[in-house]
Design goal:
Blueprint lengths: L3 H14 L2 E5 L9 H8 L3 E3 L8 H15 L3 E5 L1 H7 L7 E5 L3 H4 L9 E5 L8 H10 L7 E3 L9 H11 L6 E10 L14 E6 L4 H12 L6 H4 L2 H8 L4 E8 L2 E9 L5 E9 L8 H14 L5 E7 L6 H7 L3 E10 L2
Parallel strand pairs: 1-2, 1-3, 3-4, 4-5, 5-6, 11-12
Antiparallel strand pairs: 7-12, 7-13, 8-9, 9-10, 10-11
């Protein structure tokens, strides 16, 4: 006799992994092909509209209407459908592109960090080099371009499995370099405020919702992971500890970035998180806010301030930390998920 408890548990698990997927087919293709059928066969709800071949703007309009109606978790675009997908407003949804024909059809030239591209190097319809260029244009890690398959169709068992894995978030581990930096004595440095109406506000008891909104706004383009993986209960306990400080930068009253200082270890302070909201990058705020944060840390008179950054961070991050007076004391090569 079946174990009802085990059956119920498996049903909950199935419900948890099942996703809504918008699949956009290629040129001269039709709904119901091998790839959307594969996704549906694995328990996902697939929306697969008919897109006109000769009117790209109308194809984008239809696809956007489907997205707005169903709010899928993932958008998959195959060949010309990939170009259509790149022109949609999909917010935080994951984007999976299959041999995207973006250079022929798309007006968009970049994709968001929440994108994975599958392409065959043997593709004789859309050059593999086009996807390499798209990755470079978008400043994404090369590992997000997955070489797979024997041709343009990507309809064999291996590319279908890789497509499924990409939709479900099972992307390859990335090679990442982690840099550890420290400051053993305060350095006298004055940084002029780059604009008026700047303030840094200490948040004594931040809510999980507030923290996550700041963390995601600042870190999403750099694949910040540590707090994203932390359960709400554990994060709430950390935020309730008065020795873990959250300082929010405001410009004209709007949140522009944040710094998190960890004072839980005797005689040392870790700058755990630091960064700006994307709209405020490039205005000189980072240099000023970093110096403010360093001065705040040394006001507690520790013997050491330290931080770590990595090769996924903003290109100027390591250089800015060194310019502010931090010195590199350790470098580590790791493999990690996004």
């Amino acid at each position: 006799m079946p174990n009802r408890r085990a059956f119920a548990s498996s049903q909950r698990a199935l419900k948890w992994v099942s996703m809504r997927i918008l699949f956009l087919h290629g040129w001269r293709s039709i709904p119901g092909g091998v790839k959307p059928t594969c996704l549906a066969a694995h328990g996902h709800r697939v929306f697969n509209p008919q897109l006109p071949d000769e009117d790209f703007a109308e194809a984008v309009r239809i696809a956007q209407a489907e997205f707005d109606q169903h709010r899928p978790d993932v958008v998959v675009g195959s060949s010309r459908g990939g170009a259509v997908a790149m022109n949609l407003d999909i917010g935080a949804a994951k984007l999976v592109l299959l041999c995207p024909a973006w250079k022929k059809w798309s007006t968009a030239q970049t994709v968001s960090p929440n994108t994975v591209i599958l392409h065959s190097r043997s593709d004789d319809v859309v050059p593999f080099a086009d996807s390499e260029e798209l990755i470079r244009n978008s400043q994404l890690p090369p590992a997000l371009l997955i070489e797979v398959g024997r041709d343009h169709r990507l309809a064999d068992a291996e590319p279908l499995e890789r497509m499924l894995q990409a939709c479900e978030g099972k992307v390859p581990l990335l090679d990442v370099t982690v840099y550890y930096l420290e400051m053993l004595a305060p350095i006298r440095r004055t940084v002029s405020a780059p604009c008026e109406n700047l303030s840094v506000d200490f948040v004594p008891l931040p809510t999980v919702a507030l923290y996550r909104s700041l963390y995601n706004a600042v870190g999403k383009d750099y694949y910040w992971l540590s707090r994203r993986k932390m359960a709400d209960e554990a994060l709430a306990a950390l935020l309730a500890d008065s020795r873990n400080e959250l300082h929010v930068l405001h410009v004209d009253g709007k949140p522009a970035g944040f710094a998190e200082l960890d004072r839980r270890h005797p005689n040392e302070i870790e700058l755990v998180q630091f960064g700006l909201v994307p709209d405020y990058i490039g205005r000189g705020l980072g240099k000023w806010f970093l110096q403010w944060t360093i001065d705040k840390a040394w006001s507690y008179q520790p013997t050491r301030c330290w931080l770590h950054t990595c090769s996924l961070d903003h290109a100027a991050a390591l250089r800015n930390y060194v310019a502010a007076g931090f010195t590199l004391f350790k470098k580590e090569a790791i493999r990690r998920e996004l």
